[in-house]
Amino acid sequence: MKQTAKEFMSSISVDNMLYNEEVVASKAHARMLKQNKLISGEECDQLVEGLEQVQADIEAGKVAFSVEYEDIHGCIEQLLYEKIGPVAKKLNWARSVNDQVVTDTRLFLRDENESIMESLKELMDTLEQLAKEHVNTIMPGYSHLQRAQPITLAYHMLAYYQMFKRDLRRFENCMEGINVMPPDCGALAGTIFETDRKKMAKELGFDGILSNAMDSVADRDFGMEFINDCSITMMHLSRFCEDLILWSSVEFGFIEIDDEYTTGSRVLPQKKNLDVAELIRGKTGRVYGDMINLLTVFKGLPMSYNRDMQEDKYALLDAAQTVEVCVALFVEMIKSMKINRGEMQRAAKYGYMNATELAEYLMEKDVEPEKISEIISKVVLYAINHGKPIEELWLDDLKQFTQVFDSDVYDKVAIRNVIEAKKSTGSTSFKNVQKQIAEIAKAKK
Ligand code: ARG
Hints:
Blueprint: H1 5-9, H2 12-15, H3 19-35, H4 41-59, H5 72-84, H6 97-133, E1 138-143, E2 146-152, H7 153-178, E3 180-181, H8 197-203, E4 208-209, H9 213-218, H10 221-247, E5 255-256, E6 263-264, E7 272-273, H11 275-299, H12 312-336, E8 338-339, H13 341-349, H14 355-364, H15 369-385, H16 395-399, H17 409-413, H18 415-420, H19 430-444
Parallel strand pairs: 3-4
Antiparallel strand pairs: 1-2, 5-8, 6-7
Helix pairs in contact: 3-4, 3-8, 4-5, 6-7, 6-12, 7-10, 10-11, 10-12, 11-12, 14-15
This protein binds arginine.
Arginine (ARG) binds next to helix 6.
């Protein structure tokens, strides 16, 4: 591919997405210029109407975002000039592109941040619902991908709920950094005009104004924070996808993902591939890439604005849109998945995860500690060889290993009891899971 220098420098292919922000911020700027008597009321009306016409043309698909335009700022400036003539130039009083670009980016990210927060809330609601439906769905809890301790599906869903809750909090915090307006920056040192940024900030819904113009045009740390939050959310989603991929394999058989989110193989008809989950996992790599991209672009820049910074849009837009799409699709996917309680329960039974409770039982009966592990190994091996879970062995079978075993052992090793016996805060016990669900409901009120 060959490009002219002009094509190379143009960012319109990506920043055309900021057209709405550019128009909204420009209208606020025009009103401020009028209020401060820098332009007349009539000029202000011309500017505002002209901007609205430009916006309408863009939305009607009448504008080709050609590389002839340096960027969306230059494009709208040119289109406005074509509509209203030389008065269009007055809109550039007391502002610079360096200032416009960062103001628009902040406005855009504010919206993106809000949509992501909405999607995360929906994801949390879905997990809460799944938890409520599955307080009695017993499954193995894994460690090192080995069946380790019995839990419930509710408990598993609540673990993810907590992760996404922290993600949401991070996006909320991030808003503080995003939703602040640059002061009148000029190129970097301010302007000679007497302007009133406070009114503009209010009109544009910003929570405050930054203190230093040079800082405002030079940094994008609010965007870096945002992409960092996007990366962490993608990491959580990606792990969840990995669980779903494992769970829907024949080896696990715990769930079935709706056909809409999977593909079949023509050669291997028994296969159902979880392409959506795999792609979310894959796109996580892209978002991490966006983070490294943005950090790297900025690391060696001298103060203050440099053209390198134009590259920020590719990373920011890509990360925002990827997360937004992934969270929303993920929610739909888990809402429609079928859960095979029987298989989960079976895996829990045949996981021999109650061997620990069997050992505890012997300890409580004062069996010497050095003997306990030998007895337990033998019992588990015997159970495996006979294709039975521990709790389904006959008492006579158990007594071969030590006469200490009595009928009270069954209560001790029953999987439900193993779960219920957990006492610690945050545990998988049915009581504690109900408590966690109640806390979630309470926090919503
Ligand atoms: N499109 C550029 C960006 O996104 C802004 C261009 C800066 N041009 C200028 N005259 N300051 O960073």
